[in-house]
């Protein structure tokens, strides 16, 4: 290697290090400033750029301990679970077990009997892009019944009644956010694999990616954060039940960065499946939707994102495949406005 080539190689390494440090300093500054203004809100942020990982976090696991939140602290990722479920659907597509344009009729458990008006109309992709038109769970009523565990009263009987008594689709083909759609996708996965959703997500995402702090049915661990509702009161983590595929996975920033790393690498099963989820399955004047993903495009960038809110925590995940970066933000309070403002600020000042 000539002296000039050696110098160029060293210069590139230095530039990459400086570039990475610049990113982390700016992101950390934004998160630190937010924490200083809101010292009661714990936060954990993970960022990946060109396969390099960066983390920052502020706050304690709970009010009774001095143990700090870190990249392995466990949060409710809530509806971010939906993109894990849609990735599993896309993996099933790649395994030729299902197609995105298949009608759901033959893939539903036998308990469901679709009304004639609904037969051969709803596609797999309709469920995953929130345009099926099916009647959804009434969360307002569920919260009134049990504000700590609102989904606890949702059972197979509840879902069977909702689907079997649905005679007309409301705004079929138009965007209408749906929990029941993703619950059904989980049940469709269970039927085609003849395994529980818990077993499927473990075998196809959690274990292959070595996600050590991602939990399903059992999340009784020491590094769990405390949830706080919108008024600041203590809120229980949602217990695992039939609605799990729509929002009940618990995880941390380091594991979600590992997931993003797999998504951004096209040569593994998760990455190949992600390419399917990124296709546009719904578009109107306000939004574009992939399978579970919000898609935002301007002249230079295409951003894929998904937010999540439990009763006591807020989260958002976002990535840019072309620029090879991704970010996850987890809050221990239900503060959807805060998490969105943080992402907007990071994007506008650092990533754009």
UniProtKB/TrEMBL annotation:
Gene3D superfamilies in the record: DD-peptidase/beta-lactamase superfamily
Residue ranges of every copy of the Beta-lactamase-related domain listed in the record: 30-339
Matches recorded under InterPro entries: Beta-lactam-related, Beta-lactam/transpept-like, Beta-lactamase-like_AB/R
Superkingdom of source: Bacteria
Keywords assigned: Hydrolase
Any one GO molecular function term: hydrolase activity
Pfam families: Beta-lactamase
Name of this protein: Serine hydrolase
Species assigned in the record: Flavobacterium fluviale
Organism phylogeny: Bacteria, Pseudomonadati, Bacteroidota, Flavobacteriia, Flavobacteriales
